[in-house]
């Protein structure tokens, strides 16, 4: 296990609302100013050797809003759409790309989306090209209909990668909307979709439609079983927000905000590695219990150089 830093420890030991002042009081190891400086002066992003990642994993991407409604003068904050609140809020849109092999999660990319750099799909395609050029070889790529742009699925297919995604009910397939077809026995339909240069198959699960370039036929059940493996990224977003204080950084610089995001993900990975049979909330409770009982070797697991 690689060493973690003092800010990771601060995230893990703080219950309720997070702040550097509160974390410093809980730890009594260093001042809140040292934690703030640590975010601003260090580069916390980890470089992963893509070419050495195991082949045949799942490449998953999605985005989530990070609320900064009550923060002022934070660099890069703008009005974004929050799907959970169903309204525009001040904050960031975080695009995350992960690679999952077995029970191991690799956090490949975290991007705070800036409209000036293009649409979310354009930004994503640039990152996918980098991953392909670096030698990534996933078994399948999973994403929702928000990233089902024709250029995106065409690019993924051109890499020789297989994908499975949700598609909208009005997607044109064989010159008709997919909602106009009957899916007898849960079987998929093969054909051409508008704007897509390769043959695809469409399957229906309840009121949802799935599109894939998999060679093996899928059914309503088998396709949905594959798609459900995408939910790990939703669970990560939920844990980062509800347990590990993703939205509770008041640092004013964009660099510090990005470092906070990385530190939250590192803390999540620590909990997953050390408490693999517990969910994030229970894992943090167990960590706190062990920490207060003196069972956590902070000198071994954490580099306390804030």
Describe the fold and architecture.
The model has no long low-confidence stretch (mean pLDDT 89). The chain is 35% helix and 23% strand. Helix 1 packs across helix 8, helix 4 runs parallel beside helix 5 and helix 8 packs across helix 9. It contains ten helices and 13 strands. Strand 11 and strand 12 form a beta hairpin. The protein is α+β, with helices and mostly antiparallel strands and 306 residues long.
Keywords:
306 residues; alpha+beta; 10 helices; 23% strand
Question: What's this model, at a glance?
Answer:
By secondary structure, the protein is α+β, with helices and mostly antiparallel strands. The protein is built from ten helices and 13 strands. Helices cover 35% and strands 23% of the residues.
């Amino acid at each position: 296990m690689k060493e973690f830093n003092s800010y990771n420890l601060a995230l893990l030991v703080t219950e309720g609302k997070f702040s550097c002042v509160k974390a410093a009081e809980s730890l009594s190891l260093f001042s809140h100013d040292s934690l703030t400086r640590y975010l601003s002066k260090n580069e916390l992003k980890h470089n992963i050797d893509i070419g050495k990642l195991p082949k045949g994993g799942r490449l998953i991407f999605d985005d989530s809003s990070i609320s900064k409604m009550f923060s002022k003068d934070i660099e890069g904050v703008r009005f974004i759409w929050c799907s959970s609140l169903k309204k525009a809020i001040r904050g960031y849109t975080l695009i995350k790309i992960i690679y999952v092999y077995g029970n191991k999660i690799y956090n490949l990319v975290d991007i705070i989306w800036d409209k000036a750099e293009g649409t979310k799909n354009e930004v994503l395609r640039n990152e996918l090209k980098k991953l392909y050029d670096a030698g990534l070889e996933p078994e399948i790529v999973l994403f929702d209909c928000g990233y089902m742009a024709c250029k995106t699925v065409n690019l993924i297919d051109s890499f020789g990668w297989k994908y499975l995604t949700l598609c909208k009910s009005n997607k044109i397939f064989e010159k008709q909307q997919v909602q106009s077809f009957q899916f007898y026995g849960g079987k998929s339909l093969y054909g051409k979709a508008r704007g897509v240069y390769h043959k695809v198959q469409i399957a229906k699960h309840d009121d949802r439609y799935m599109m894939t370039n998999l060679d093996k036929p899928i059914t309503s059940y088998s396709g949905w079983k594959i798609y459900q493996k995408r939910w790990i990224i939703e669970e990560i977003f939920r844990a980062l927000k509800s347990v590990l204080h993703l939205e509770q950084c008041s640092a004013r610089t964009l660099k510090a905000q990005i470092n906070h995001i990385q530190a939250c993900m590192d803390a999540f990975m620590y909990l997953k590695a050390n408490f693999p049979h517990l969910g994030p909330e229970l894992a943090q409770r167990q960590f706190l219990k062990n920490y207060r009982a003196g069972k956590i070797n902070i000198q071994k697991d954490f580099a306390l150089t804030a």
